[in-house]
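Notes to self, Permease:
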Amino acid sequence: MENQNQVQNLLVAQANQADRSTFYKNTYGHVAGGVLVFVIIESLMLRSETLVNFMLSLTQGYLWLALLAGFMGVTWVAQKMAYGSASKSQQYVGYLIYIIAEALLFVPLLYIALAYGGQYVIKQAAVVTGGLFVGLSVIVFLTKTDFSVLKGALTIGFFLAIGLIIAGMLFGFDLGLWFSVGMCALAGGAILYNTHQLKHEFGTQQYVAAALSLFASLMLLFWYILRVFMSRD
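result:
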């Protein structure tokens, strides 16, 4: 049993090629599965006029801040379940909770996007997001660059972004196109950092937690790329 636990807790960087390949396959398979579940849940949510109207009502001022605070709280719980639990079932529950929370948060944006440009603008944003995600991931795997150095900059960037979002809500100013572009860059940096983490900070059995980490960065990138597309005249 002790030897089995050692194998289960082995860092990906210390594992053999077969175990690393299995870990990466499981991780990215779960990311793809998370996207599929998100699409299904989001489609169902957008069909509920009551839910759409309720979520739209939360997009103004203090209510939007309360919604974001609630989302961050749910994210913390989901991550604790996915990262800290030895039970695979609890890890999956944490991942599912996070996907549902993301789907709820996206309801107002996707509803407005559908009214703005129909499914075409959403598909455009999805294709660009997917392409960037794949490209950034390939960079990490094909180079020996140490992307862990991004951690400090990402932390500062996210706190600055949260401060600007709060200020915008409180004082009623639009953050504009360039904020969305900056957030796309920040999300791209998060993908680089999280992909680098796969090789150095996760164990071979932590593919659910690794998938949640990548999924979160992917959805952040999609959110702001969609906002960029919606900002075009």
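- Residues 16-228 form one domain.
- The chain has a mean pLDDT of 87.
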